[in-house]
Amino acid sequence: MSIWYAIWDALPFEMLHWDFMKNALLALLLMAPLFGILSTMIVTGRMSFFSDALGHSAFTGIAIGIICGVAAPIWAAVGFSVVFALLFSFVRSRSNQAADTLIGVFSSSAVALGIFVATVGGGSFTRYNKYLIGDILSVTPGEIGMLALVLLAVIVFWVFYTRLTLTAIHPQLASSRGIPVGLSQTLFTAAIAVVVTLSISSVGLLILNSLLVLPGASARNVARNLKQYHGFSVLFAFLAGVVGLTVSYYSGCSAGAAISLGLAAIFAVTFCLRKVRA
């Protein structure tokens, strides 16, 4: 971290002379490929609302962790979210219900349980505001290190398990070729659960889903092949992150909200380009 700080101290960028801004920028550099890669998988696999449901489960895990006196409630949230994701995969594989129906069941149940746990005994809900809104400017070096490890794991999973793309596009074809569709989907849902949970305190539950959907959705508007699809998704996540962080610093607004609006603007532009190209 000292090298990272020294690099920006030597450059004439006023906002990056503050350590908390350097931490936030480094976190964004890790989040951009992380959200970009997962976004393409989520959009392709039509799992957009599932990531939102996982955010609700992460909030429930945090509430349980705080009530139980866990020193670091985020780890209780990680555990609860992974269990939630695995339970969803289990029910989905053994049900004839549509995926969006099951997601609605799990999402509504998770958020209801979270609110119940957070307010039981007349507890105050205000202590959870930081998880709803998020604050990437308060990210710590320890959290940055954890994001780096998660990014490395996701990249390895993505590179060495390319069959996941076929599983998302055409599960029946993937199964006929001997690809373990159930295992692939389970690993994927668990990966989303970990990323969502570790990011919730930085970007906030209320807008987290936009960061997991909009990069891939925007890339899909302009990409002509799979390579461009992944590349544009990561690029859009990076651009929105840097612009959002800059806007947040000079305007005093929420960084997460600024990043999300930046992604929305990118989607609008790419949608217009798609219409022109068509």
Can you offer a commentary on this structure?
This protein is mostly helical. The chain is built from 13 helices and no strands. α3 crosses α10, α4 (73-93) packs antiparallel against α10 and α11 (205-222) packs across α12 (226-251). The model has no long low-confidence stretch (mean pLDDT 79).
Which descriptor suits the 3D outline?
globular
Order of helices and strands: HHHHHHHHHHHHH
Strand content: under 5%
The tally of helices reads: 13
Assign the structural class, choosing from mainly alpha, mainly beta, alpha/beta, alpha+beta, or little secondary structure: mainly alpha
Q: Quick check: average pLDDT?
A: 79
Summarize the biggest pleated sheet.
none
Through-space gap between termini: 47 Å
Which runs of at least 5 residues are low in confidence (pLDDT < 50)? none
Radius of gyration: 19 Å
Topology at a glance:
Elements: H1 2-9, H2 19-44, H3 48-67, H4 73-93, H5 99-119, H6 129-133, H7 141-160, H8 163-169, H9 171-176, H10 181-203, H11 205-222, H12 226-251, H13 255-277
Helix pairs in contact: 2-7, 2-11, 2-12, 3-4, 3-5, 3-10, 3-11, 4-5, 4-10, 7-10, 8-10, 10-11, 11-12, 11-13, 12-13
